[in-house]
Structure formats: structure tokens, C-alpha cells
Fold:
Amino acid sequence: MAFRYYDAEGIKNKMPEFKGTDEELQEKIDEISLLYNSAIKELDVKLDVLSDDFDKKYSYMPIHHIKTRLKSMDSIIEKAERYGIKDPINNLDTVRKEVFDIGGVRVICNYEEDIYIMLDLLLEQSDIKLLRMKDYCKKPKDSGYRSLHVVVAIPVYLVNRMALVPVEVQFRSIAMDTWATLEHELRYKNKGELSDEIQDNLKDCALQLAKVDERMSQIRHEVLDKGGEYSTY
Ligand code: 0O2
Structure:
């Protein structure tokens, strides 16, 4: 079964508190695999089409690349517990209502301005519903992290029904992604613990990269104004 992402046996070994049978658990987690995998595929295609049409119209592709992922079951359960959901493995329907990033799409754009262009184009689509927005570009996190996060609901059409599935879309510039990827790896390697000095250094790197982002964008506009290779939009 190509859609299957979570395996009941592995999950039950780690979470023996599940009250049903292996088959019941597999049924519940197959539903999550199918819905969220389909939703991130749909979004991936939508964004790809927008970028292609942008290229056709303006000879420029605002999206550098896209990554998709399903959150691991361990991380889903850990987040649900952090959100105060009791006995999450036996309450997966509640977990699905509260944990919005089971399906994740990361859109890496060239420049910060491309983020807002892509966001607007996506939100203009009538089947996309905005559920939540957090703009860490305009207001970076204490760590220095910058990105634009939205949670959107997207319809997934199945054999006998339609489901609206929430997906978290993180929009980043290349510079934002560089910082977040390296910082994440450093934090992960140190089991989430980084000294104050290292955190200050990383925050400083984030500030420097934000300045580079802005300068690169200014340079780009100078090139455009001089009739460079892109048409204006
Ligand atoms: P993964 O594997 O990237 O998905 P929370 O605050 O966790 O209860 P919420 O509201 O989703 O839930 O948090 P937030 O901060 O809006 O978004 C969390 C996600 O943003 C993280 O996902 C990271 O992907 C990213 N992120 C947020 N802050 C940082 C940061 O300081 N450094 C880096 N590198 N990434 C960050 P997860 O769940 O951690 O994991």
C-alpha cells in the first residue's frame, strides 16, 4: 500500500497503551497517512503550477524548491501531550483537530518578497481556506528564526467523500532556510541544548542573513530596473 506511512506494529511497541487491536490502530493511522499525504501532494502540485505559470508570464520562478513531510507519529504524540491532550494515542481524532502540522509543506523562495507573492496567489484559490497565519519574517522568533507559517485547509476527494485537511505551509527565502536548516541540525545534535553564547551567536547570524536577504533583493531590483533578463511584474 503505497500511501501507508505509519506502521501499527512499530507504534504499538512504543505506545502499548493503545486500547484497541492492531487492525484498529492500523485503520486509524492509515486514514491519517492517506489524508495528509494526499493533502500535501495537492498543495505541492498547486504551488508548482503557480511557479510554472509565473515563469511563463514573467520568465521568473519565485520558488526555488519545495519539500514536503508527514510528521512522525512520535512527534505528533509528543506535541499532543504538550498541548494537554490526555492519552493521545487513544484520542487520535482530537489530536487531528488540534495538531495542525501533521502534514507540512516547506516552500523555499528565492527572495523574501517572493514569499508574499506566492502566499497571495495560493490564498486566492477558492478551494484553499486560511486557518492560521504566523509571520516570523516581520516578527522573528527569539531564536532569530524567520519564516512565514500558514495553516490552510485543502479539500481531498476520496472514493465516496471529501475531507478538508489542514496542512502547515512554511514559506522561507533561501537565506532563511539556510539559517533554519543549520540551526536545527546544531540543536538536534546537541539534544535541543545550546549554551547562551551559542544562541547569541546564532541569533547574530540570523540578523546578518536578514541583512543579506534585503541587500540581495535590492541588487535584484537594480538589475531589473536596468532591463535585466526578467520582465517586471
Ligand atoms: P518540524 O520537524 O520542523 O516540523 P509549537 O510552538 O511547537 O507548539 P507551532 O505553533 O506549530 O507549535 O510552533 P511554531 O513555532 O509556529 O512552528 C514550529 C515549527 O517552526 C518547527 O517545527 C520548525 O519547523 C519551525 N521553527 C520554529 N522555531 C524554530 C527555530 O527556532 N529554529 C528552527 N530551525 N526551526 C524553527 P517542529 O515541530 O519543531 O519540527
Q: What stands out?
A: Residues 71, 101, 104, 134, 141, 143, 145, 149, 180, 183-184 surround 0O2 (CB under 6 Å). The longest strand covers residues 162-173.
